[in-house]
Amino acid sequence: SLVVLFGATAGAYGAKLGSDERELILLVWQVVDLPSKKVGTLHKSLVKADNLDLSDQCREVSGLTPEGLGKAEPLDRVLQQFSQLVSSDLKVLGRSSYTLCTDGQLLIRQVLHPETSKKNFLLSDCFYSFYDLRKEFHTCYPSSAAVKDQNIKTMAEYLGLGTDETEEDFGVWQVKTMVAIIFSMLSESCSHVFTEPETVKYKYETVYLGFFFFPLCSSKSEIVDSETVIRARGLPWQSSDQDIARFFKGLNIAKGGVALCLNAQGRRNGEALVRFVSSEQRDLALERHKHHMGSRYIEVYKATGEEFLKIAGGTSNEVAQFLSKENQVIIRMRGLPFTATQEDVLGFLGPECPVTGGKEGLLFVKYPDGRPTGDAFVLFSCEEYAQNALKKHKEILGKRYIELFRSTAAEVQQVVLNRYMSTPLIPTLPTPIIPVIPPPYTIATGSIRDCVRLRGLPYTAGIDDILEFMGDATGDIKPHGVHMVLNQQGRPSGDAFIQMKSADKAFMVAQKCHKKMMKDRYVEVFQCSGEEMNFVLMGGTLNRSGLSPPPCKLPCLSPPAYAAFQTAAVIPAEAALYQPQALLPATRTPQASAAAPTVTYYPAQAAQLYMNYTAYYPSPPVSPTTVGYIAAPPGAVAAAATATHTPILPQPGALVRMQGLPYNTGMKEILSFFQGYQYAPDDYNGLIQLSDQARSVLQAPKEWVCL
């Protein structure tokens, strides 16, 4: 038997049904016994929505009113009545089983499944299998219009059936006409047989087969149909693959078809690539553009198979073995002691959350040289065990607190393969393309007020925005004279300093641009001196009460645009990156604040600069990262500036920066820490020839620079 089902929402109708997230307000159905061609009672049921504000189209087409709907039952009660009445009608007809039949797929896939998922109640099994009358009609009548152009009225007109909708109530005419169409398809001239119903997957599958990491993509050389992939943007950072599958409830996602995207720091960036089983399913997913996940709306766009493979493709025997067990819940652990063993982790998790396969359910993430990163992935066989594990978030193992997050197979892929195993531990500086390096640019000092300070910049503002803001005055900016200030977290502070060619030019800019709008904010512009600028760039504060000295920290200046883990770069002649003054802050004397090096720039010739960043690796959301410039104490620079040798970092050579050292750390402890690694020649001073005075200065600060 078939149960012919029709429904309507409080919003869009027809081809846009369900695209506006409006709730169901009407269900009409009738049982049809195919062998005997008998029908049961036609039922019409109104549904009380949480929001009774009906769209103009709904009012016009359906004739329903908020007052009438206010007296109806909620959806869960209506679905219970639906099951009871269908069972009763089947019993009268002598039948026991049935399959739904709808006009297209929107009612089931885009309305019922998403709404019940949001309201947290389950649909009965009958809603996971149904016949699409439009597809069945086109199979029976191949010369009819394409499936996407069909509707109840066009199918009725093709068969010559009556199409006067005004004779019946809204919904009743549609069901009666659908029943008449079905009887026409069952006639002797057609003898159509309903054999292959549409199916809705009960849950998202994360099956991994054989040694392939991804079930449908054995490697990045495989081809993924671009007509089946979408990009979802604006996801909450804590979203898992199951959360995304729930957002697309009613649509069939391919096995392992959810890939969460990570940014350069390894944090989830609020995007995911989702692969569906067909282009038809993908097109339905695009209709959920700006639907909501909790309080956030999610943007849905087309994506390519190539983009999907960049995130989800690849193979690894270790990863494949780890993920070979089906339908496991994955938890990511961060902050593990570097000496932590499998037994330590299992003991930390305890008997209340047993790991699948014991030690085989643990995957430690390591650097390319085999050293642990402090991250690990853990498999659990059920949601209960995973929830027990998440309760241990920030509990102590050894002397460290451990962070636990939900994770996905695709995140394992990105972190273990794309990030760690394919990236050198310390990226080396590229070979310069010029043998002669010009003198470095330095920040001017003194009390001459030839600088301006911009305060209140939008946090998204870049150097190009500042140049546009300055207008004609950009021609009066010194080369490499734009300095954007970052806070201690490496984020824009909303301040910037600009070096002008003269004090008069600075005065004119301050008068002209003060409280001028940039984007949606007004920016304050003040004239200041190079000394005042240096105080702020070195970490001090400048306000109405005067200058506050900077803390004993290094400057935190803004970087130019860069690609994470840059392996090859062209360094223009204008970029004096290998000079000591470009890498290290200049010395400061009691008489005046010395020149702090400018690592920001004014792109007069659109030249791109590349700096050597300290290495950093993926970490879960809200986990801290350290992104900074290589720097050293001022005394080291004073000594280095007097050195006669030119190539400060010849290949092969690399700088590493150590942070968080005890304040009493000395040279011996540093060398002991790096025991087993080959450091630069010329004793522990590397390639920088330090004087005794400079060497003594190096023993004071908390941060070190090693060559």
Automatic annotation (TrEMBL):
The keyword Repeat applies. Keywords: mRNA processing, mRNA splicing, Nucleus, Repeat, RNA-binding. Residues 228-305, 329-409 form the RRM domain. GO terms for molecular function: RNA binding. GO terms for cellular component: nucleus. GO terms for biological process: mRNA processing; RNA splicing. InterPro entries: ESRP, Nucleotide-bd_a/b_plait_sf, RBD_domain_sf, RNaseH-like_sf, RNaseH_sf, RRM_dom. It is found in: Nucleus. Belongs to the ESRP family. PANTHER family: HETEROGENEOUS NUCLEAR RIBONUCLEOPROTEIN-RELATED. This is Epithelial splicing regulatory protein 2. It comes from Halcyon senegalensis.
